[in-house]
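seq:
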Amino acid sequence: MFRNLFKSRVEEDIKVRTYYSKYIFNSHFILFLSIAAGVLLYTLLGLRDDLRGNIYVDLVAAILMSVSIMPVYRSLLKEADVIFLTPVEKDLGNYFKSSRVYSFILGIPIPLVVSVIAFVLLIINHNMMNSLLIILTFYLMVIGVFALKVLAVNSDVSPTIVVYVFIVLNTITLFLQMQNMMFALLGIVFYLVAYIILKNKTRSTIDWLTQIEHEKQEQNRFDTIISMFANVPKREKSFKRRNYFDVLMKKQNIKHYNQDHMYDYLFHRSFLRDFDLPMIMIRLFILCSIFIIWMGNIYISIIFILFVLYIMILQLQGLYTAQAYLLWPKIWPVSRDKIRNSYIRYSRKLILVISILFMIVFICIHPIEFYVSLIFPVWALLINKVFSKNVYKKEEALSD
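struct:
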């Protein structure tokens, strides 16, 4: 019975992931990732002799591996389970065992990809055998952090704190191991102590409320990641006022607050008041800027800026679908063409501002090739135009 229960739920979850994967890993995105990976690998191999002996390469590899260990634990429990499954709690051993296996498989792809990148970095300063031993230690850490997180979910200890603490400890352990292989023993001590502590704090019975709440958090985390690439209808949209953005809330001119320009203001307000969209944009800009400054390679700079602009423009589609179908069109009915025109005007302004910021960063890094930065606004406007048409086509297909 319970085997079939988990089977039905995991099939449903896989179906959802498969559905969104079609939109994320489309041919354009796969082509871009392939080119980006090739350029990155070519650049690292080309810089191998220049970077040899640089201790910061080891530090970057250690941080990269540690940050990638963000295990997923999906119990796939639902709120009603606290009523219907509590009486048969003792018979759910296979259910939770299957959920742990499925969760571990979900969290494996990113560490596998990162291990390849880390290996390329490691062979710059280490021989083949030592590099493989470090990667083996990394894989053991992936298993260890996952096991500790599962224990923490059913204890008074926050799983998030456990993961973040071990990001720091793993970074220290891996970096020290790169200097002397014997420091791998230090990592074993960390994990043994943490396991004993968490094992003693783990409840003997299932904490249903905690398990269900954790499942909600993991589902929201998944929806947040997917929303960066595609619209997630079931995701609860919330808004937040940030006082430091108030300076950007320009008072609307009365003569412009009509059916032709009303949505310009509403799109702008929705963007600044969105719970996560503006912060996602800011984080993407900062992370991309830090990465291209650190790499210093013109080809990597171009590819990653184009990639981040691609992701940002994908995010903006949510503004149209969220605002265009809210209560405003019912209170003040306007034609869809006017809403679309407002979105086009606002999205163009926003992506031009973002493109200019990237141009400034690029020119500061590569002043001689400043003219190359002109490709950023052209790319952004072109991608925005293509994505906007796709949104309108979907809207027309759903219209009566």
